[in-house]
Amino acid sequence: MAGCAARRALAVGSRWWSRSLTGARGPRPLCAAGGAGAFPPAATTTTRRHLSSRNRAEGKVLETVGVFEVPKQNGKYETGQLFLHSVFGYRGVVLFPWQARLYDRDVASTTPEKAENPAGHGSKEVKGKTHTYYQVLIDARDCPHISQRSQTEAVTFLANHDDSRALYAIPGLDYVSHEDILPYTSTDQVPIQHELFERFLLYDQTKAPPFVARETLRAWQEKNHPWLELSDVHRETTENIRVTVIPFYMGMREAQNSHVYWWRYCIRLENLDSDVVQLRERHWRIFSLSGTLETVRGRGVVGREPVLSKEQPAFQYSSHVSLQASSGHMWGTFRFERPDGSHFDVRIPPFSLESNKDEKTPPSGLHW
């Protein structure tokens, strides 16, 4: 298209980003438009190379915030890399990478190097492949517009006091898969609005990207590694609904003369088809090493019954589970409803709940 050269401007308003960039051959401009929580239907390439605050889309003021870069097919993004989330559309910055084991049950495996098949639930072994995720900060300006699709306070921790069930969260902290990163550059010395941005990162125009880790970030990562670490990712698709689960060990607390082990788990639901579906019910089975098997049924998830459509194909949330044993596993189904009123069940891939054997003491809050 005329005027759309190799480097293009990135523009942001007060709403979602366009998903049309995914799979594009080169960097493209991005405009914000549409109603709250909606992807703009026509925010694609334009003949303008740069967009400014004088450009308007459906009454929304646009601001030039940077220039897209070509996404990396190989290698990792560095600390300080600015990006857009390709699914949820928020601006963010990479803090550091995690090397996880991805167990994809949609991929057959005959000779697994390291397989998971917890307690025989599920009929096939799955080979774990190394996959890169990133610890990131979310721009606070975008949090209100993604809250209906993805929790912005999903990374929770056990509080440091006598209440064994007390949790707290760091707002705007997330984990992002490598393929969800759409990198961009900016000339702004503080391009991301988050209370930890300048605490963790220092502007250095001689570097690329020009934001380098401060000692506070390195110390924070090291001290809180056991409670931040992402190690295993589980994925399975049923009738074009893909479920991704990431469990995290949170620590152990003593309650009524017994040990209680806590985990949080992040779940992402993605509609890979164009048909509209709505999540109606959840059905969990939770097995503890102590020998107990618990069944949990309920409406929706975290008080919601999200609709997955072509315009808004994904929903992500986090929840928690506690056991009176150092390990266990979970599996289950989500029940979805089609527009004609029919229902179908989507499998939740089985995943293990493992405690950190090396950490004898519970976390005492996030240290700086």
Automatic annotation (TrEMBL):
InterPro entries: ApaG_domain, ApaG_sf, Hemimethylated_DNA-bd_dom, Hemimethylated_DNA-bd_sf. Residues 235-360 form the ApaG domain. It comes from the Eukaryota. This is Polymerase delta-interacting protein 2. It comes from Ceratotherium simum simum (Southern white rhinoceros).
